[in-house]
Amino acid sequence: MHGRANLAGPEGPWTSIWGYDGTVPGPILRIQQGRPVRIAVENGLDEDTTVHWHGIRLLNAMDGVPGLTQPPIKPGESFVYEFTPPDAGTFWYHPHAGSLVQMGRGLAGPLIVEEAEPVAVDRDLLWMLQDWRLSGDKQIAGGFGSTMDAAMSGRVGNEVTINGSAPTNQPVRAGERVRLRLVNASLARIMALRFEGHRPVIVAIDGQPCDPHEPEDGRLVLAPAMRIDVAIDMQGDPGSRHDVMDDVYDGLAYPLTTLAYDRAPPLRANPLDAPLALPRNPLPEPDRARTIRWEIVLQGGMTGGGKLAGVGGMMGMGMPGMNGGAAWAINGMSMTGDGHAGMAPQFALERGATCHLIIRNETAWWHPMHVHGFSLSVLSRNGAPVPHRQWQDTVLLAPKDIVECAFVADNPGDWMLHCHVIDHQMAGLMTVFRVT
Ligand code: C2O
Ligand code: CU
Ligand code: CU
User: Fold this and answer.
1) Cα(269) to centroid of ligand 3, in Å?
2) Phi-psi region of 369 (alpha: psi -120 to 50; beta: other; left: phi over 0)
3) Which of 30, 31, 49 has its CA nearest to residue 41?
4) Stretch 141-152: mean pLDDT, rounded?
5) Which ranges in 279-431 belong to alpha helices (H)?
6) CATH no. for 2-114
7) Which of 149, 356, 358, 377 is the most buried (most CB within 10 A)?
């Protein structure tokens, strides 16, 4: 599981990483919707691990949360994961033990569940985006879980890679239609991608097809753990070049990469005449008649004055970040780390009930909130209905946002709900709910 990767670009030195099969990202797993898979994981690390299949609706025992759904995989031991993916789409996998360090050193890989019928595009591309904090010698910097990272925006790095290397030109052909699967596998960096001269159409979010639509102000906002599938008709001129910008942080826009058209004449005169909508996945529709409301309030983090906002009496625990100290809480409770044995669920749902989940961000920070085992139908944000029939497993909340969603609790077990800025998860922005 140890390896080297060329994160710093062709001239840079190699970086030592931890990787699935020794690579960054891990191997692309391409599996078929509705077909059972068996994936054997052997732990070659010197510490416990597990693998979590992010976004897949699977049996609780296969969810990969140590203590909660399985015992951790000890060094030298293995575990066989078996599941049948009900949904086609773009997913990913990562450890759920020692998450901050293991993911921060490179453990993550893409998981693509193919539709039963192939989708009409010329090319199916994947950009697995990862953000790294590298030291001067281009090695992964230590200092994981510092108080600053834990209580503020998390471990944002200084080098972004696409599919494990410093981005170079992306060759494209005039006239082609590309399905581009974007995965943000960063620990903390939020991205907002703008394709200059192009009009990407969002066809799926977090693996789940939505009504095809162009993003608001042309930016594709990808918080950690989110995926967006876009369809792009390459309408640039042969030989032309177009930057892809990431401009999420004010004044810090940078060109992520460049679409470089080859000189060949366009593949076709007019854009491909095929529908953009992907076939819907078999998600259970929320039922208004059987609804239970539950509110999750996100609390804590550093305030403007450099103080920690109160986290419900959990502050006696020492410095946040390291050693399980809490900087955040959900409804006054701080669950730190990766997952725990014997953690009492914060709420319980009867199997088959619809949960109307309200997430209220009282903090001054952004949080991509992730639910294991389910996809959420996103209903509204700050009172305004969310259009395009979006289902998500990771929902980004801006400071003070209130998001309402709904899902059918059709899958029994104890499930995690946490922020996917891993520093925040480790420092208390996590909880468990039970479906009985
Ligand atoms: Cu990708 Cu518990 O998460
Ligand atoms: Cu997950
Ligand atoms: Cu967070």
Assistant:
1) 46
2) beta
3) 49
4) 93
5) 422-426
6) 2.60.40.420
7) 149
Give the CA count within 13 Å in the CB-facing half-sphere of 133. 17
**E strand or H helix that includes residue 257:** strand 254-261
Write the pLDDT tens digit of every residue in 155-191: 999 999 999 999 989 999 999 999 999 999 999 999 9
Residue 36 burial class via C-beta count within 10 angstroms: exposed 0-12, middle 13-18, buried 19 and up: exposed
What is the pLDDT at residue 24? 96
Other Cβ atoms closer than 10 A to 59:
16
Compute, in angstroms, the gap from residue 61 CA to the centroid of ligand 2: 13
Pinpoint the alpha helices (H) of 105-151.
Answer: 147-151
C-alpha atoms less than 13 angstroms from C-alpha of 164 in its C-beta half-sphere: 24
- CA-96 nearest atom, ligand 1: 2
Q: How far is the CA of 365 from the centre of ligand 1 (A)?
A: 19
Q: Any idea which fold 123-261 has?
A: Immunoglobulin-like (2.60.40)
Q: Where in the chain is the domain with CATH 2.60.40.420?
A: 2-114, 123-261, 288-435
Task: Look at residue 90 and give its three-state secondary structure.
Answer: strand
The arithmetic mean of pLDDT across residues 372-380, rounded, is 98
0.90 exceeded by pTM = yes
Torsion of CA 14, 20, 21, 22, to 10 degrees: 20
- Whether residue 418 has its Cβ less than 6 Å from ligand 1: yes
Q: What is the CATH number of domain 288-435?
A: 2.60.40.420
Q: Cα(142)–Cα(101) distance, rounded to whole angstroms?
A: 9
Rounded CA-CA distance 259/245 in Å is 11
Bridge partners (DSSP) listed for residue 405: 357, 378
Q: How confident is the model at residue 312 (pLDDT cuts 50, 70, 90)?
A: very low
pLDDT of residue 309: 66
Report how far residue 168's alpha carbon sits from residue 162's, in angstroms, rounded to the nearest whole number: 9
Q: Exposure pattern of 362-401 as b/e (b: 16+ CB <10 Å)?
A: ebebbbbbbbbbbbbbbbebeeeebeeebbbbbbbbeeeb
Q: Tell me, rounded to whole angstroms, the distance of Cα 142 from its chain centroid.
A: 23
The candidate with the shortest Cα–Cα distance to 191, out of 256, 259, 144, 287, is 256
Of the candidates 220, 144, 231, 139, the residue with the CA atom closest to the CA atom of residue 183: 220
Q: How far is the CA of 96 from the centre of ligand 1 (A)?
A: 7
Q: Is the CB of 52 under 6 A from ligand 1?
A: yes
1-15, 226-240, 291-305, 381-395: least confidently modelled range? 1-15
